[in-house]
Design brief:
mainly alpha; 3 helical TM bundles of succinate and fumarate reductases; two-stranded antiparallel ribbon; 69% helix; 6% strand
Amino acid sequence: MGANRDSVDGVDGADGAPVPVASKVQGMKAGNRPLSPHLQVYRPQITSILSIFHRLTGMALAAGALLLGYWLTSAAYGPETFARAQDFLASWLGRLVLFGLTFALFYHLLNGIRHLAWDTGWGFEMRTLKATGWLVIATTVALTLIAWIAAYAVAGGA
């Protein structure tokens, strides 16, 4: 894979042999117009993966806003309802959801800052794109862990 200049990296035929680019493009034409971009032709890159992940974390944060609304509303409905909401959020599943939302929040925030830098025209060189992408991932992981470690420290390991 990748050694043959007439083949597409990462795209092999049924027998494992590289498929020529020309036959891939011919197979995807719709009335003389190639369909592009197409996952069978393009190998995922960090920029495309982070772009998709940015959209997914945005949707996760919207769901998290609904969860926050449920939690706040449960407090208004009385102690029993609030206790049920608290019990769910304190369960292993609730904490997993909260951990995921924390990760989504930090990722979306940091990648949004990266996008703001792009709005100024900075960071479009391929080397910078890759470096800032990996920086966003590493910083997201670090901030998520720091936030959870700090929360457990303040809560006394609850």
